Every structure is written in structure tokens, then in C-alpha cells.
Amino acid sequence: MTSILTLKNLPSSAKWALRFSLRPLSCSSQLRAAPAVQTKSKKTLAKPNVRNVVVVEGVRIPFLLSGTSYKDLMAHDLARAALSGLLHRTSVPKEVIDYIVYGTVIQEVKTSNVAREASLGAGFSDKTPAHTVTMACISSNQAITTGVGLIAAGHSDVIVAGGVELMSDIPIRHSRKMRRMMLDLNKAKTLGQRLSLISKFRMDFLIPELISVSEFSTNETMGHSADRLAAAFSVSRLEQDEYALRSHSLAKKAQDEGLLSDVVPFKVPGKDTVTKDNGIRPSTLEQMAKLKPAFIKPYGTVTAANSSFLTDGASAMLIMAEEKALAMGYKPKAYLREFLYVSQDPKDQLLLGPTYATPKVLEKAGLTMNDIDAFEFHEAFSGQILANLKAMDSDWFAQNYMGRKTKVGPPPLEKFNNWGGSLSLGHPFAATGCRLVITAANRLRKEGGQYALVAACAAGGQGHAMIVEAYPK
């Protein structure tokens, strides 16, 4: 038996492997399980003397694989399209918008405050302030909660929040040596100074610096972290492929049944009108099994089939103080209730944000897992989702890593990401948060539930969770 002393000296991932190696989690067996009996709660989470903040509507342009129909555009073009779609869907007068907050991750330097550039392009009043936030994959979650804070504090009544990402055209820089030479040349005043600088030029100055989707603190790609996390929690390749197939199958069903009502068409300049997400591709387990590992070769289990893909897209959401929405004649979709952010070690716990955030937000709201009717979690990788489910189902993990007496328990899969998720719908980094929230609101209306829980992991070892409450019919 491993001694406590030995266990303490092991890295986190090794400790988890010891604890979870005998605890397989079969996605397919959970899918076959009978629906759990739901304990319905009728209470509202409204608080005395605190303004209710509501979602009036949320939209997104179709999420597309990078390098496809949006490849010749800029990020502000996509954001402008989402904002225009929101205006068209809601007919909200532009002059009543108090503030606009937008998220983005890979910034285009020409439009560093993409919120402002996109809002001007969409025809919003030039008197409406706008700012841009970045918090990796939870950037639009941060945009939403920034708006919630402005409304709750009484500073604003009407906020537009959103997010945008364009992975088809990422900024690629000259090397630092080349940049320094170019800057020095710009400052040089004489021909002699310029020639002296040019004489120092070497061919390796021309090697460009490519953007790497990796952690600055660890220099590890997120896919590499997902592979290690899956191994630590003993999530098999088959389980990951099964979950990815579930995501794509549910997304295709939702798309075919018209449930993805947040999608608005976008006429791409010089091209056809895009009307639906193009990354939804149900396959077979046999075909998925043929793919080679994408990150840790040759023994890794994370592949292109069970990972979210590089995506272009944008989303936008109209949130208001409840009294303002009703005064303007709107029927809100949902209340935005308790929320919080968490952060952990970006090395071994990079993708475990939902595990840490879920019990905290439930306690903050006075709810239990049984009160939640719909779960919408960001799917970065199948292995990440399944590792979180295992961690949430472990008393040992709760006690040793979270300082909790007992586990919170895993979400039942029959309530989990029922209309697909980031693995299938796509993941434009900063736009996903709005998709999660509006999908949660739409699912509550469609399914008759009262509470939804939104959660996501993000780079830097951070995470987010929020409770969404259905608006009374």
C-alpha cells in the first residue's frame, strides 16, 4: 500500500491516477441509464433590495471551422454581424443601450477594443461606451457578469454583452530581433546610423513568431494538459470517443429539429449566406478509432475527433434590469442569478474549473444538484469533461484537493449538454460563454425546467459557474 508520505511526494496527476485507476466511467452506460427522478424546487432566487437581471435575448452567427467561409474577414466583422443580428431579433432601440461589453482572446491589434469598433459598425450610437475583456475561454462569461454588475449596482439598465473569435487570421509577428531592428531604424537620423543597423541583420531575424495556444506559465498546450488529465483520471480513449460521438449526435438532432434558435444567418460579403454551424459531423466509433493521437504521441488518447476544433464565430446577448425590460414590453427568457469565478494550479488542474466552481455556486444559491434541470458545460475536450465528472463524483478528491467533506456529485447525462456542446457546435474562444447561457435559457423554456447551471474551464487554470433561472411563463 502506498504510504501517506509517498503519496504526498507524488505530483497531483500521479495521485489522481492511483485513486481513479479502478474507477472507470462509461459514457455509454450513463447514456443508457434511466432518467433520474427530479426534485422540483418552486422557490425563486430573487433577493430583497437587489435588482433582478434578465436575459431578453441572445444570438450568435453560425460557428464555422476556421479557414472556411469567414477566413477573409476580420474579428470585428463577425462581432458586427452578431450585434446586428441581436438588433434585428429584438428591435431594441439603439439609443437605450447604456453600455456594450465584448470578449475576445486572440486580439487583432488594429481593433484592440473590438467592442467599440464592432458596435460602431453595427450602427450603435457613438455615445454608447464599449470595452473589451479577455479571460480566455470564459471571456464572454466575464462580459455578461460585468454587465450584471453594472445593472445590479444601478449604473445601467440595458447592457449588450458578447464575444468574438477569428482563428482564420491570427496575428503572426516578426521575430523580436527583427522588431527591435525595425524600431531602431525608424529612430535612426543619419544614413550612417541606418547602415550600421542594417549591417547587424542576420537571416534568422526573418523567422516569424507564431501564436501558440499554450500556457505562458507552463509552456504546455491545452491539448497536452487534457491528455495528462485524462490519463490521471483513467479516462479511456473509447470513453472519450463515445462522449464526442454523443456531442455530435445531439447537436445534429438539435440542429435538425430547429432547437438552435440562437443562430442568426450571416451574409458573408462576396459569398453566400451562412445559416448553420458547419462543424457538426457525427461519425462512428470505428472511424474515430482510426485517428492518431494529436498531442502526446504515440500513446495519447486525445485526438482531433474528441477535441473541440479551431472555430470562427461571434455571439451577443441583450440583458436588462427586469423592470426596464417589462416597461419596454419585453418578455424575458431567464434571470441571471448567482455566479462566481475560480482559479487553480495551471499545471495539473488547468481544466478542472467546473469541478471547483459547481459546488460553490450551488451553495451560494442555496441549491443542490437535484435542483438543477439543465446543465451546460463547456466541452474543451472529451477527456476534460469526463475527468471533471469523475472528480465531481469523488469524495477523495473533494477532501484532498477542495477542502470539502463530501463530493458534489456528477451531473446526470440525461440533463447534460442535451443540444450538443463545444466539441460539435464549435468553440470560438470568447464567444462560447454567451452560447452556454442562452442555450441554458432556451432549454429551460423548452423543457419546462426552473434552474440551469452553466460552467466552463479556461486557460490559466481558471473557471466559471452561473445559475440561470427560468422566467415565469
TrEMBL record:
Domain Thiolase N-terminal, chain residue ranges per copy: 53-323
Keywords associated with the record: Acetylation, Acyltransferase, Endoplasmic reticulum, Fatty acid metabolism, Lipid metabolism, Membrane, Mitochondrion, Mitochondrion inner membrane, Mitochondrion outer membrane, Transferase, Transit peptide
InterPro entries (UniProt xref): Thiolase, Thiolase-like, Thiolase_acyl_enz_int_AS, Thiolase_AS, Thiolase_C, Thiolase_CS, Thiolase_N
Family that this chain belongs to: Belongs to the thiolase-like superfamily. Thiolase family.
Function per UniProt: Mitochondrial trifunctional enzyme catalyzes the last three of the four reactions of the mitochondrial beta-oxidation pathway. The mitochondrial beta-oxidation pathway is the major energy-producing process in tissues and is performed through four consecutive reactions breaking down fatty acids into acetyl-CoA. Among the enzymes involved in this pathway, the trifunctional enzyme exhibits specificity for long-chain fatty acids.
One MF annotation (Gene Ontology) recorded for this entry: acetyl-CoA C-acyltransferase activity
Coiled coil spans: none
GO CC entries: endoplasmic reticulum; mitochondrial fatty acid beta-oxidation multienzyme complex; mitochondrial inner membrane; mitochondrial nucleoid; mitochondrial outer membrane; nucleoplasm
Domain Thiolase C-terminal: 330-469
Quaternary structure and interacting proteins, as annotated: Heterotetramer of 2 alpha/HADHA and 2 beta/HADHB subunits; forms the mitochondrial trifunctional enzyme. Also purified as higher order heterooligomers including a 4 alpha/HADHA and 4 beta/HADHB heterooligomer which physiological significance remains unclear. The mitochondrial trifunctional enzyme interacts with MTLN. Interacts with RSAD2/viperin.
Record SUPFAM superfamilies: Thiolase-like (SSF53901)
Pfam families in alphabetical order: Thiolase_C, Thiolase_N
Protein name: Trifunctional enzyme subunit beta, mitochondrial
Catalytic activity: an acyl-CoA + acetyl-CoA = a 3-oxoacyl-CoA + CoA; tetradecanoyl-CoA + acetyl-CoA = 3-oxohexadecanoyl-CoA + CoA; octanoyl-CoA + acetyl-CoA = 3-oxodecanoyl-CoA + CoA; dodecanoyl-CoA + acetyl-CoA = 3-oxotetradecanoyl-CoA + CoA
Keyword Endoplasmic reticulum applies: yes
Gene3D superfamilies listed in its UniProt record: 3.40.47.10
Pathway connected to this protein: Lipid metabolism; fatty acid beta-oxidation
Any GO BP annotation: fatty acid beta-oxidation
UniProt enzyme class: transferase
Organism the protein comes from: Pteropus vampyrus
Gene assigned in the entry: HADHB
